[in-house]
Amino acid sequence: MRMKNAKIVAVAVAVAVLALLVGCGKGKTEPLSDTLRWFNATYAVITDLNGGDAGIVAGFKPGTKIEMTMKGVLSRDWEVTDRASLEESIDWLLTEGHNQDALDYLMESGAEGMDRAGLITAMDQSGFDSEDKVMLLSIYDAKAAYGEQAIAGWDYSRAMSLIGWGYLAGFYTYEEAMDKSLETAQKIQKIFDSWDDFMNSYFLGYSYWSGNDPEDISSQAYKRQKLYEELKAEKDGIYSVDWNTSLVKEW
Fold it and tell me: Residue 151 and which of 34, 94, 145, 224 are 20 to 30 A apart at CA?
């Protein structure tokens, strides 16, 4: 149930937020500290896709309209209707999430002992369709690169975004959301070595979750990776914040 609902969120949030919020949640803001910029960078791709501003905490200015919209989005796409269900979803992402599902799938497939070329041949011979090939190769590559944390970047990025959206929806106070973000961000920083590492795990997770081939230029997987490269290239952009920034409580 959780996985099915969560699988809707990337498109549903983009549609809902773009339709209702573009233009109403932006405005002149004070520059964020490096710690807050680091938080925002963990989900800057989805923030940008949603028409938000990575220079604002959680991507949008808080207010009545954004609160009601976020409550609707969280209820429909995550079954989050209050603080308790919000924390349940976040905890699931941080302790199990799609990463565990993907690792189980990889083990059950029998692919772990194979080399990559052999796996591709075996999938072709077994009649795998294109989506199943993408899913299995994504988790295969992720496990090879990051071990048991294979696509944890995907889960942790979504956890960070849920914390921010929970704040905008009024389920967390600002301080509570920032405290939870700090705790989560420090875990992320220990698992991965750079923004590229973290985002590669994120993209492999997205391809596993969606079945989107990142080599297909018409796919959302390709477009997300392209967007990351564009954001990373921006002078003084969101990804100019150092991965090894000392993350501290300052609120």
Answer: 34
Strand (E) or helix (H) holding 160: helix 152-168
Nearest to 146 by CA among 95, 93, 198: 198
How far apart are alpha carbons 39 and 26 in whole angstroms? Answer: 18
Tokens of 131: 């989506």
DSSP strands (E only) in the chain: none
Give the list of residues 6+ apart from residue 11 with CB closer than 8 angstroms, or none: none
Q: How far apart are CA 59 and CA 188, in angstroms?
A: 20
Predicted local confidence at residue 113, as pLDDT: 85
Residue located via tokens 């963990």: 42
Supply 112's token pair: 């772990």
Both tokens of 170, joined, read: 């009024």
Predicted TM-score (pTM) of the model is 0.88
Residue 248 backbone dihedrals phi, psi, to 5 degrees: -135, 155
The alpha carbon of residue 222 and the mean position of all alpha carbons in its chain are separated, in whole angstroms, by: 15
Per residue in 18-73, pLDDT tens? 445 544 444 445 689 999 999 999 999 999 999 999 999 999 999 999 999 999 99
238 DSSP assignment: G
CA 195 to CA 193: how far, in whole Å? Answer: 7
pLDDT by residue (tens digit) across 127-155?
999 999 999 999 999 999 999 999 999 99
Four-CA torsion 123, 129, 130, 132, nearest 10 degrees = -70
Neighbours of 56 (CB within 10 A): 20
